UniProtKB/TrEMBL annotation, chain A:
Binds a copper A center. This is Cytochrome c oxidase subunit 2. Belongs to the cytochrome c oxidase subunit 2 family. The lineage of its organism: Eukaryota, Metazoa, Chordata, Craniata, Vertebrata. Residues 79-190 form the Cytochrome oxidase subunit II copper A binding domain. Residues 1-78 form the Cytochrome oxidase subunit II transmembrane region profile domain. PANTHER family: CYTOCHROME C OXIDASE SUBUNIT 2, CYTOCHROME C OXIDASE, SUBUNIT II. It comes from Dicentrarchus labrax (European seabass).
Automatic annotation (TrEMBL), chain B:
This is Cytochrome c oxidase assembly protein COX20, mitochondrial. Its main location: mitochondrion. The lineage of its organism: Eukaryota, Metazoa, Chordata, Craniata, Vertebrata. It comes from Dicentrarchus labrax (European seabass). GO terms for biological process: mitochondrial respiratory chain complex IV assembly. Residues 95-114 are annotated as: Disordered.
Length: 190, 114
């Protein structure tokens, strides 16, 4: 989805900044190991202190600006064409399509021993949530018993399912296909 | 083997240079900037250690500058790509209807049957 593409770009940008910082630290370590200069009586140094105060602030701004941009992009109102309710249970999800007709179904994970060749372990489900492509969608997420979390990494979507609370998330996908997700909040008995 | 080729080479174990857009160009520009800056400083001052420091600073600045420039152009291209995709989609949807921007009625054209 476009949001996931933007998240990937932010990740690449942050990774490059992290790479440069790591390179700087490695270089400083090598320089300090190999130097012959020593000074037992140094008390302060205005120049280096200014550098190591200003530089981290600049780095934080460099990472924060694209991050905030995506944060507000994800919260934009997108006038959804379809609303789906996802309700978390122990241990299955139920979906309700109530915009046009009353349609609801439960979906269970296919156990490992029942998988057909080529299917993915711990990801396949018996009834998939089907959504139209190129349509902005809204998913209302809640839970019946304990905390769950509805997540589809390929779409850049994750929303906690809290009992007694209705959380909203939205996404749009431009590529048809099957997108997998797993419950992302501890919800087991042990 | 195909999976190893797709994974790519990771600098310091974290930066996938082959599969991250703009990263290869940024690192190469940084390497060139580093060598240039260090060499020029050494030729001017004959100080080896300080030339290494200057070369490293040149690497950081050149890599960061090249990265930011390439990413900004990349972002502009992505925005243009999305606008073109939306335009194509809308053109297909509205083609032949009154909302088609290419179907503007002319002033002297008679509207009734001739």
């Amino acid at each position: 989805s476009p949001v996931m593409e933007e998240l990937l770009h932010l990740h690449d940008h942050a990774l490059m900044v992290v790479f440069l910082i790591s390179t700087l630290v490695l270089y400083i370590m090598l320089a300090m190991i190999s130097t012959k200069l020593t000074n037992k009586f140094i008390l302060d140094s205005q120049e280096i202190e200014i550098i190591w105060t200003v530089l981290p602030a600049v780095i934080l701004i460099l990472i924060a600006l694209p991050s905030l941009r995506i944060l507000y992009l994800m919260d934009e109102i997108n006038d959804p064409h379809l609303t789906i309710k996802a309700v978390g249970h122990q241990w299955y999800w139920s979906y309700e399509y109530t915009d046009y007709e009353d349609l609801g179904f439960d979906t269970y994970m296919i156990p490992t021993q029942d998988l057909a060749p080529g299917q993915f372990r711990l990801l396949e489900a018996d009834h998939r949530m089907v959504v139209p492509v190129e349509s902005p969608l809204r998913v209302l997420v809640t839970a019946e018993d304990v905390l769950h979390s509805w997540a589809v990494p390929a779409l850049g979507v994750k929303m906690d399912a809290v009992p007694g609370r209705l959380n909203q998330t939205a996404f749009i996908t431009f590529r048809p296909g099957i997108f997998y997700g797993q419950c992302s909040e501890i919800c087991g008995a042990n | 083997e195909e999976e190893e080729e797709e994974e790519g080479f990771r600098l310091l174990g974290i930066l996938d240079v082959q599969n991250t857009p703009c990263s290869r160009d940024a690192i190469l520009h940084g390497a060139g900037g580093s060598v240039t800056a260090g060499l020029l400083h050494f030729l001017a001052t004959s100080r080896v250690r300080r030339s290494f420091d200057v070369g490293f600073a040149g690497f950081m600045l050149t890599t960061l500058g090249s990265w930011l420039y390439c990413r900004m152009n990349n972002a502009k291209l992505r925005v243009q790509q999305r606008m073109i995709q939306d335009g194509i989609k809308n053109q297909i949807v509205y083609e032949g209807t009154s909302r088609d921007p290419a179907n503007k009625p002319e002033a002297g054209t008679p509207s009734g049957p001739s």
